[in-house]
């Protein structure tokens, strides 16, 4: 009988005992150290674009929800007459409530301080980085567990793959950006993956843990939940169809695990969505309408793909690796045994494909792809780690060489951007020193001339006394808003944004 990847993974190829654990822990430490090092220069970067509006969710002691008409957190769009102005995020409100009430309660501003631009920036970015670390640690946990089943040079493969993913420009920027995708998004999909990858495979626990995982993913953005249900249905359907059309020896226990996992994930997502609807039907529907608007217009998918490519090319490399893994598993009739890995891969591919198809430009930084990178990267890490014992031994050194080279490119890219002092998040490449000077000038003008500046929401974060309207509204939008709610003051508006 030909040896399958699954059976090969069970043969005595593993490094066992304390020595293997020490080696694995050493490599884990190096990956963590490198991942931290590439981010350190950007901890205090000034808030750019909409980052200020999201930073409001974690700064100070008073929640944003206490200051809005409907009691839910909203994005800050300005300040007039000493009152902060807010509008709906037009998304499922649960992630924003989590930031506003739970994450804020850690008191970031209190123990970091808010007496300078640098401290405010640090207090704004650290909560989002913390959420990224918690969710992204599933990569490190999976790498550690996989490494302990390998020996020799192959032990390094899971760690270099994890290190490459965590140091990519997309991961570095998304982890430090005050936005949902790289923080709550990574947290939710990371916890979902944690639960179903590192769980016990015994009896009823399979179904229960799958329900829990699905529920967690259902609390996030609409597209994440939809993509998980679709991925589960597609992989389960193909596996069952293959089993029916080409019957063969199939592990009955593996079939029960697959069915329990699939049913649990779908039920869990339904429960998560139901909870979100219980919190606010209106806000949840706003998110559906926003998704529909994102696909409107005559946008070029190819052009936006090329614009995003400097950030997303690692994702597409991982997608290619995951696609190869799926083909191999299909050909070897292992979809049932490796159902979870397949679902993670297709889930990530679905999220990536959806955003690719929408051709949404955003603020130039494609943070929307970060959850997809985590999921597809995790499936590749697990897949290649389990496949190594059945592959030629030259494959492991080749993978290590490629991933190490990729990490070197990532580190050099981060160093270059740090030296040039440019943004790695919103409006990537924007000079941060020039932007800091711009903020000083705008704040001084607003204070001395008594005008309402139309600029980045960051001006309202760094100075609590000036009047402003966010540039995210556009000049026309700001004029219309002031004319509608503060008639007679539209003449004080001055466009200062660059």
From TrEMBL:
Superkingdom of origin organism: Bacteria
Q: Determine if Transmembrane helix is one of this entry's keywords.
A: yes
Record-annotated membrane-spanning stretches: 20-38, 126-144, 156-176, 182-198, 203-219, 225-241, 262-291, 311-331, 338-357, 395-415
Q: Provide the alphabetized UniProt keywords.
A: Membrane, Transmembrane, Transmembrane helix
Q: Any idea what this protein is called? A: Glycosyltransferase RgtA/B/C/D-like domain-containing protein
Name its species: Azospirillum brasilense
């Amino acid at each position: 009988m030909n040896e399958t990847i699954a059976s090969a993974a069970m043969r005595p190829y593993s490094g066992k005992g304390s020595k293997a654990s020490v080696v694995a822990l050493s490599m884990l430490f190096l990956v963590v150290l490198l991942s931290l090092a590439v981010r350190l220069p950007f901890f205090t970067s000034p808030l750019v674009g909409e980052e200020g509006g999201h930073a409001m969710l974690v700064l100070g002691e008073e929640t944003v929800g206490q200051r809005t008409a409907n009691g839910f957190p909203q994005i800050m769009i300005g300040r007039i007459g000493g009152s902060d102005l807010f509008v709906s995020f037009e998304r499922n409100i649960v992630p924003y409530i989590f930031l506003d009430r739970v994450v804020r309660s850690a008191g970031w501003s209190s123990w970091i301080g808010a007496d300078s631009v640098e401290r405010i920036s640090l207090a704004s970015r650290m909560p989002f980085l913390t959420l990224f670390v918690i969710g992204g640690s599933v990569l490190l946990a999976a790498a550690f567990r996989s490494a302990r089943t390998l020996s020799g040079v192959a032990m390094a493969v899971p760690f270099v793959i994890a290190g490459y993913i965590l140091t990519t420009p997309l991961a570095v920027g998304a982890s430090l950006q005050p936005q949902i995708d790289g923080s709550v998004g990574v947290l939710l999909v990371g916890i979902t993956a944690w639960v179903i990858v590192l769980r016990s495979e015994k009896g009823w626990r399979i179904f229960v843990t799958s329900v829990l995982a699905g529920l967690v993913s259902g609390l996030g953005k609409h597209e994440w939940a939809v993509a998980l249900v679709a991925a589960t249905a597609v992989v389960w359907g193909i596996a069952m169809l293959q089993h029916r059309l080409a019957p063969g020896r199939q592990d009955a226990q593996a079939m029960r695990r697959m069915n329990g996992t699939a049913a649990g994930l779908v039920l869990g997502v339904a429960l998560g969505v139901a909870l979100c609807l219980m919190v606010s039907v209106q806000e949840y529907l706003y998110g559906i309408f926003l998704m529909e608007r994102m696909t409107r217009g005559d946008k070029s998918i190819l052009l936006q793909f090329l614009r995003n490519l400097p950030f997303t090319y690692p994702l597409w490399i991982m997608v290619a690796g995951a696609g190869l893994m799926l083909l191999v598993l299909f050909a070897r009739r292992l979809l049932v045994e490796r159902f979870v890995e397949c679902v993670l891969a297709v889930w990530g591919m679905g999220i990536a494909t959806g955003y690719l198809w929408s051709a949404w430009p955003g603020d130039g930084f494609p943070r929307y792809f970060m959850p997809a990178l985590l999921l597809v990267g995790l499936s590749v890490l697990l897949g290649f780690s389990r496949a190594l014992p059945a592959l030629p031994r030259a494959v492991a050194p080749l993978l290590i060489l490629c991933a190490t080279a990729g990490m070197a490119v990532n580190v050099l890219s981060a160093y270059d951007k740090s030296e040039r002092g440019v943004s790695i998040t919103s409006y990537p490449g924007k000079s941060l020193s020039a932007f800091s000077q711009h903020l000083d000038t705008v704040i001084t003008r607003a204070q001395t001339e008594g005008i309402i500046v139309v600029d980045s929401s960051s001006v309202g974060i760094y100075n609590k006394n000036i009047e402003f309207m966010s540039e995210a509204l556009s000049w026309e939008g700001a004029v219309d808003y002031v004319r509608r709610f503060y008639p007679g003051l539209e003449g004080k508006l001055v466009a200062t944004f660059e």
